[in-house]
Amino acid sequence: MNSTQTDRHIIWSDLSLNPDDWRDSYKDYLEINELDDDPNDENELYKWMVETNEEYLDDERMNLNIQLSQPIIVIGDIGRWNGRVMGYKMIDSGNIKDCLYADTDYTEWYVDKYGDFRADAAHHDDTNHYLYRVFKDGVSDTQIENLKDKIYMGKATRADITRVTRRLGDEIAAVYGFPIPKQRTSQERSER
Is the pLDDT at 72 greater than 50, yes or no? Predict the structure, then answer.
């Protein structure tokens, strides 16, 4: 998909699919494949749109088959029927493609203007907001457990997160060729 809004580079989304955006492609699909289906059948157009978009997600998984040296942590701001809670999930494979799975109704994965890989995932109760980060090389098991505890208790700050993890946007931007702000080095941060 790879469209860009002002504050995000969308990698893939099914949050707001609009059949009007897919109508011409559907007609081309019918013509190229010499199918006699009615190009104005809204139900068939919708079904084709959803199936085709799902195939695009498989393509994005292939594009983002990037193996990192450490596990990825998904930090979630979870919308539940009884309010919002913080949580986390580990992606032990350390492969970015494994971030592109969701068990919600609709999901949009994107790189934000700060170079963080994120997702918004809508479901029947509310919307979950996910931040994907990879652990830095050399981080100890104790540091990882301390971060997990802070997330679980809802007390993790941005500083806690960036101390032991790094963003994924650099690897993703390299695949798609879009610009993101340069990440400041430790020395640049300490000079402030």
Answer: yes
pLDDT at position 6 is: 64
The Cα 107–Cα 123 span in angstroms is: 9
- 31 token code pair: 């013509």
Residue 10 lies in a domain: no
CA atoms within 13 A on the CB side of 192: 5
d(CA 139, CA 164): 6
Structural domain count, the chain = 2
Indicate if 76 and 54 belong to the same structural domain: no
Domain that holds residue 45: 15-63
Q: Are residues 35 and 84 in the same domain?
A: no
Residues with Cβ within 8 Å of 3's Cβ and at least 6 positions away in sequence, in order, are: 10
DSSP assigned state of 181? P
* Residue 190 binned pLDDT confidence (cut-offs 50, 70, 90): very low
Which of these, 160, 13, 122, 96, lies nearest to 4 by C-alpha position?
Answer: 13
Cβ atoms 118, 112 nearer than 8 A: yes
**pLDDT tens column, 74-89:** 999 988 888 888 999 9
pTM of the model: 0.85
Do 55 and 76 lie in one domain? The reply is no
Q: Are residues 85 and 129 in the same domain?
A: yes
